[in-house]
Amino acid sequence: MADTFTVHLKIWRQEGPNEPGELVDYTLDKVNEHMSFLEMLDVLNEEIVKEGGVPIEFDYDCREGICGSCNLMINGQAHGPKAMTCSCQLHMRNYSDGDTIVIEPFRAKGFPVIKDLVVDRSAFDRIIEAGGYVSVKTGSAPDANSIPVDKSVADTAFDYATCIGCGACVAACPNSSASLFTGAKLAHLNRLPQGEPERAERTVAMVEQMEEEGFGDCSNYAECEAVCPKGISISAIAEMRRNYMKAALKGSEA
Amino acid sequence: MPSFLDALKSQVGRKILTGITGVGLILFIIFHLIGNLTLFGDPQAFNEYTYALENLGFILYVLEAGLAVAFLLHAYIGISIWWNRRKARPQGYKKYQSKGGSSHQTWAAKSMIFTGIVLLVFLVIHIDTFKFGATETIMLNGHEARDLKSLVIATFQQPIYAFGYTVVMILLGLHLGHGFWSAFTSLTMKHNEYSALIYTVGIIFAILMAVGFLFIPLYIYFAGPDAALISY
């Protein structure tokens, strides 16, 4: 059995959306280096339950970095210290005995806290509803080959499609901007032949929804790109700006 | 579709306007520095240059109006972005740190609001000191002209001006350190093989501008009014 070590945790506890919250200290001495960060929280919750306490609420689903649920601010960094990983892909081998780890929920007006570390990210759903789709029948699998798509276009579209909507970009942005998320969705759909016809309407609708949800302005800090578990480039934001201004120019001519 | 004006008021439009006005202000300071360097040319080169500039007539008013609009718009949008960020995250983090890597969240980037406001206040003092400052009238090639060169030299004999300007010019360098690169991204340049180069060029440009501008007050202060490079 691997050696265990001790970590000191400061975890945000908040009973409900409108309750005041605070950082609560926990010490966990059963940590081993093979645990994922979420397993460590599971073990802590078992301890809390044993002592009759209320377990810490945190979001997760796949635990393999593809669902975008495990949105934790770990020591002030979205998804923790490692590049291109989700919180669930962080392992306790990155910490040593006696370390203090602060865990907070993703914070933004657009991401209200529901309880403890769980936030409501339905603002992202509403940005998608505003235009993050194609309104044409794309057919069944064999039809995919009937519309030729340049390999480089398909690859770039796929790079942007890897966005899992976790919200780390918003959480890490000093301005709480959702530009990388919105830009990635636009860059994915706008460049494909199925998405191209609605490019102008989509871009305008999603940008407007993003602003309506209360996300802040982009100041080109590029912090979003650094924390994105999928490594999505801020080129998506540049492209969003170009398509939005193009759409506005065209719109005012019509 | 939004009207073009509405589009400019959106988050995206504000960034485009910040970029355009930023590029305009960058071009302005390049010309400003080149003009300043005439102090080190022929004895009356600076006064001839400022005379020519102040007698551009209508063109001067257009340029001044354009600059005023660019400055005010740039400042207004910058301050409103900083104001909005409080609304966008009503409750802050107890602990926050940059992840590094491809992040450009440098000290220069984080201090844009501070360096920007200092530059705005500086601008008012600067215009008051030189544009509206009292000068002797001298005869220059048969016409009356302001002896701005003497005013510059006298002003920078005073430590508060010499060192105050130096500090502000370092802050200008910091502002440009993020601003130069940021303008390209705001004006929709995507990441490509030149991105790293543009970032580096931006930092070199920022240092050149800061050093170029702060050299003048420091040189005049330490070399004195009879300094070789600026003597009549």
UniProtKB/TrEMBL annotation, chain A:
It comes from the Bacteria. One of its GO terms (biological process) is respiratory electron transport chain. Transmembrane segments: none annotated. Residues 22-107 form the 2Fe-2S ferredoxin-type domain. InterPro entries: 2Fe-2S_ferredoxin-like_sf, 2Fe-2S_ferredoxin-type, 2Fe2S_fd_BS, 4Fe4S_Fe-S-bd, 4Fe4S_Fe_S_CS, Beta-grasp_dom_sf, Helical_ferredxn, SDH/FRD_Iron-Sulfur. GO terms for molecular function: 2 iron, 2 sulfur cluster binding; 3 iron, 4 sulfur cluster binding; 4 iron, 4 sulfur cluster binding; electron transfer activity; metal ion binding; succinate dehydrogenase (quinone) activity. Its EC number is 1.3.5.1. Residues 154-183 form the 4Fe-4S ferredoxin-type domain. It is an enzyme of class 1 (oxidoreductase). Its cofactor is [3Fe-4S] cluster; [2Fe-2S] cluster; [4Fe-4S] cluster. Coiled coil: none annotated. It catalyses: a menaquinone + succinate = a menaquinol + fumarate. Belongs to the succinate dehydrogenase/fumarate reductase iron-sulfur protein family. This is Fumarate reductase iron-sulfur subunit. It comes from Fodinibius halophilus.
UniProtKB/TrEMBL annotation, chain B:
The chain crosses the membrane at residues 16-38, 58-83, 104-127, 160-184, 196-222. Keywords: Membrane, Transmembrane, Transmembrane helix. The keyword Membrane applies. The keyword Nucleus does not apply. One of its GO terms (cellular component) is membrane. This is Succinate dehydrogenase cytochrome b subunit. It comes from Fodinibius halophilus.
